[in-house]
Amino acid sequence: MPAQPTEICENCTVNRIDLRRCAGCSVVRYCSKECQKAHWKAHKPYCVSNAELARQAAELGPDYSDSLTAIGKWCDAFSVPIGAASASALNLMNYPERIDDFVLVIYVDFLGPSAKAPHTHDIVDADVLPLDALLAHARGILLDKAAIFERNLAPRPGMIRVLLRDRRYPWSYTTPFVVPRNIREWLYDPLWFEHLQICVTRPGRPVRPRDRGDSST
C-alpha cells in the first residue's frame, strides 16, 4: 500500500505526512509558518489549555512524561503504517460511521534508552474499544487529570483517534490520524495487526508474540 497522508494542517486542512507541531503545546500541526501565524488567533486559547494539560501530565512523574515523549517520537516515525492499520482496525472501508464511536488502543513496550530510533518500541497487542467506555475508565483512574485524555480523544471530523499505551502506566499517548478521502477504495486488511508489527520491528529482530494477557483498560 502506498504511503498515505496521515496528518492535517489545522489552518489550511492540507493532508501531509511531515507536518510540524506547534512549539507551544506540541499538539496541533501546521504545514508552514505562514499557516501557523494565520491560525494563531483561533488557536491561542487552545494552545494555553493544551500546555496546561501537558503540565498536568508532567505532574504524574518524570518517568511518565518521558514515556509520552518517547512514544510521541515513535508514533511520528511510523505514522503512515499506524494510520493505515487504524483504518482496517475500525473497518472504515465498510463502516465509516465507526470513526466517531470507537478508538484503537495499541499496547507498546519501550525497549529501553539504548534502543536506536526509530525502532524504540514493540507492539504487543491492540484492541478497538468504544469511546464511551474508554473515557469512563479514564475518569475512574485519573480523576481530575482525566481531562488530558478526554480532550485528546474528543471526536474530530475525519480523524481516527488512536491511544498508544505503555502498560507501565494507566494511560499513555493519544494521537489522531486523517482518514484518506479514498478510504472506500481501500481493501480491508484482516492482518492489520501482524502487518503493523512487522513495520515497527527493527529488521533482523523477531516479531514479538501477541500478548493478550492484559489488554483491559
From TrEMBL:
Quote one Gene Ontology molecular function term.
zinc ion binding
Going by the UniProt record, its keywords in alphabetical order are:
Metal-binding, Zinc, Zinc-finger
Asked if the Swiss-Prot or TrEMBL record annotates the protein with the keyword Metal-binding, the reply is: yes
Q: Which Pfam families match?
A: zf-MYND
Domain MYND-type, first and last residues per copy: 9-47
Q: Does the keyword Isomerase apply?
A: no
- Spell out the InterPro entries in the cross-references: Znf_MYND
Q: Which named protein is this?
A: MYND-type domain-containing protein
Lineage of origin:
Eukaryota, Fungi, Dikarya, Basidiomycota, Agaricomycotina
